[in-house]
Write a structure and sequence with these properties.
299 residues; alpha/beta; MutS, DNA mismatch repair protein, Chain A, domain 3; Rossmann fold; 4-stranded antiparallel β-sheet; elongated
Length: 299
């Protein structure tokens, strides 16, 4: 892989720009461009000094690849120049003695662009030949980055190893995205109904355990007490929050029912189902009856 890096570093810099040394021709063209630009600017500097009233702002600008200067409209009384562009009460002009240099500069820049394109094609041809090796290295780096990210996550969240089990026995579980999260203990083998006052942490608990399942099955350590036990599920279904959709003519209640119906059709006895505020958005008595029916069906 060293020869690949050596080739690329001889053509482009760390920012992806083509180096002057990428080819002798490119280096020569860029040196000529640099010298010619300096000559043009020196000529303008002399004009500014010779005609201070004509060029009070001493402004040079590139328009259509030409170096031009901001001058007073009466410039024709003092120097011969091409009018390039009007600007409020002034004009941008190209003095006759600078016009040939601008033309030469434009040709040099065109040649520079052609040489840069040739170099880029050369790089593309080279990379096509070694593409498989680069892809292999990319996949290795991708895997390493994934494991490093998981390790960093464990350090930042003070996570620990957990045991795979057919039951929940999690102690001091903390939602990794909530600062100063209140630790939660959970021990069960089947279903659980969480009750309590508003802002008591019911929804946060549901989200914590749903996230724990996904993290666990991705191979992450969990922000909980060491040796906590957690099951493996074939899928995770959730109905949390208000999914009201005005465009689809769905109320809060109907959107929940639609989602829960989809969950009941697709969930298996190996799925994790999280439902927040079952029966919300309708009459409390009807909601309670619906909740009991869904719980009975799920069991």
């Amino acid at each position: 892989f060293e020869h690949i890096l050596e080739f690329l570093s001889s053509k482009i810099d760390e920012r992806g720009f083509i180096l002057n040394s990428a080819s002798l021709k490119l280096e020569s063209l860029r040196n000529q461009i640099k010298e010619l630009e300096k000559t043009i600017k020196d000529l303008y500097s002399n004009l500014f000094s010779k005609y201070p009233n004509l060029f009070p702002d001493r402004i040079i600008k590139v328009i259509d690849g030409k170096y031009v200067a901001l001058a007073k409209p009466n410039y024709g009384q003092s120097i011969k120049a091409n009018l390039i562009e009007k600007a409020s009460f002034n004009v941008y002009i190209e003095p006759k003695n600078i016009a040939p240099l601008n033309s030469k500069l434009k040709k040099l820049i065109l040649k520079e662009e052609e040489e840069e394109e040739r170099i880029l094609k050369e790089i593309s041809t080279f990379l096509t030949k070694v593409g498989d090796k680069i892809w292999q290295v990319f996949k290795i780096l991708e895997t390493l980055d994934f494991y490093m990210a998981k390790g960093l996550f464990a350090l930042l969240t003070n996570s620990n190893f957990q045991k795979l089990s057919n039951k929940w026995d999690v102690k001091k579980a903390r939602h990794p995205l909530i600062e100063r999260a209140v630790p939660i203990d959970l021990k069960l083998e089947k279903g659980l109904i969480i009750t309590g006052p508003n802002t008591g942490g019911k929804t946060a608990a549901l989200k914590t355990f749903g996230l724990f399942v996904l993290l666990n099955q991705l191979g992450y350590l969990l922000p909980a007490q060491e040796d906590s036990e957690i099951p493996i599920y074939d899928n995770v279904f959730a109905d949390i929050g208000d999914k009201q959709d005005i465009l689809a003519n769905l109320s809060t209640f109907s959107s929940h029912i639609k989602n829960i119906s989809n969950i009941l059709k697709n969930a298996t006895d190996k799925s994790l189902v999280l439902i927040d505020e079952l029966g919300t958005g309708t009459d409390p008595i009807e909601g309670a009856a619906l909740g009991i029916a869904i719980k009975t069906f799920a069991d």
